[in-house]
Description:
Layout: H1 2-11, H2 14-48, E1 56-60, H3 62-65, E2 87-88, E3 104-119, E4 122-131, E5 135-136, E6 146-147, H4 149-152, E7 157-160, E8 173-179, H5 180-186, E9 193-202, E10 205-220, E11 228-232, H6 233-240, E12 245-246, E13 248-253, H7 260-267, H8 274-281, H9 286-296, E14 300-304, H10 306-348, H11 350-358, H12 363-401, H13 411-431, H14 439-443
Parallel strand pairs: 4-11, 8-10
Antiparallel strand pairs: 1-13, 1-14, 2-12, 3-4, 3-9, 3-13, 5-6, 7-10, 8-11, 9-10
Helix pairs in contact: 2-10, 2-12, 2-13, 10-13, 12-13
Amino acid sequence: MLARMLFKSWKHGLKRKLLAIITIFLASGLVSALLAVSIDIGDKMAKELKSYGANILIEPATSAILPEMSLSQNNLNHNNLATQDFLDEKELPNIKDIFWRNNIVGFAPLLTAEVQAKTAQGSQNVQILGTFFDHNIAVPDEDDYRTGQKIISPFWQVKGEWVEDQNDDLPELIPTLAGEQLAKNLGWKIGDRVQLSYQYQEQDETRQNQLEVEIKGILSTGGTEEHQLVMPLSAVQNLLDLAGKVQAVKVSALTVPENDLSRKARKNADTLNQEEYDLWYCTAYVSSISHQLEEAISGAVVRPIWQVAASEGVVIEKIQLLLGVVTIAALIAAAMGIASLMTSSIIERSREIGLMKALGAYQWQITLLFYCEAIISGLLGGITGCIAGWALAKFIGAALFGAPLDFAWIVVPCVLLLAVLIALIGTWFPAHRIAKLYPVEVLYGR
């Protein structure tokens, strides 16, 4: 009986019902797209924010005792390498052997010193930096894994050619990149050759190594690298007689924003109880990843680069907050639109409602009829809105990130539920007008 009445009632006022469906469709499409974006925005934004550079720095443990020796302070004593501790290059694969190995985007070791450079214009002391550019390194279960500055430092810009990482057998002429400021100050250009020499003490004997390099490109980074000659790590190790040694490793990792738990662990992880520690350890906070890296690399201290890590979390949190505000605004606007349409529909059908009351229909039966109409409108608008939202999420992903966003199917039931709630909330206010409609008044046109 109710189904037949609902079918007959649905045929009346199709224009208003179509407007209600369109209203819910627009809101559902926007909400489903925003939900899909908010679910996937964390990983996408984290990857985009990797353009700011690495967010974790691994150094020898002595740097925690002697901050002046820390590479992160840019105060490294380049002429006193003999008194420094180093990290073992053989342990670099351990970086990809931690619990959060899949969150490690890449890493690049660093070895820097001050050497003497000889050119046709004369001699000059310059800083050199050895690192990986696009290096193949065998890590557990990933024999073809590649890492280096091309991956963790996409903001590096090279005018000319990138250099390639060298194997153990070094060529006579080492390709290198000259920092933009260094090249400008010394008048170097692409194609110039520079003779590098480094003196060191070995068993009370002064030794000197030499290396000839060719400038293949001019490097612009906006950082200290612009004042250095940047070349393959193996070449610098050979020049400094430090085979298999590195001073630090920069790591780029995908992390989640900090919260109260991570801040508590950041101050002192020993204050966490067992449940808190397990949750912290198994969440991709920059502090927990750093802790696991410190466990994996012997004789190392691992520090998050908070300028990068903190900015990533703040940006992602603000974007998600913005998406939430827009979603709530869309739901409120849709509910107000439905309320307006239903109010007009009830006024328009007041004679019909009065007649049903005169024939003995209960108020709850009439109200239920309007609620059922609203549910049908909500479902139709929600289903079509999900389809539109899926397409909109794909478009947003392609436009902002160059790749379509993944549409999580959990969004569909959530959006359908929200669509029905919008329709019911929009109907609830005008439905109370039914109680004020008396058969005698509405049937006689009062």
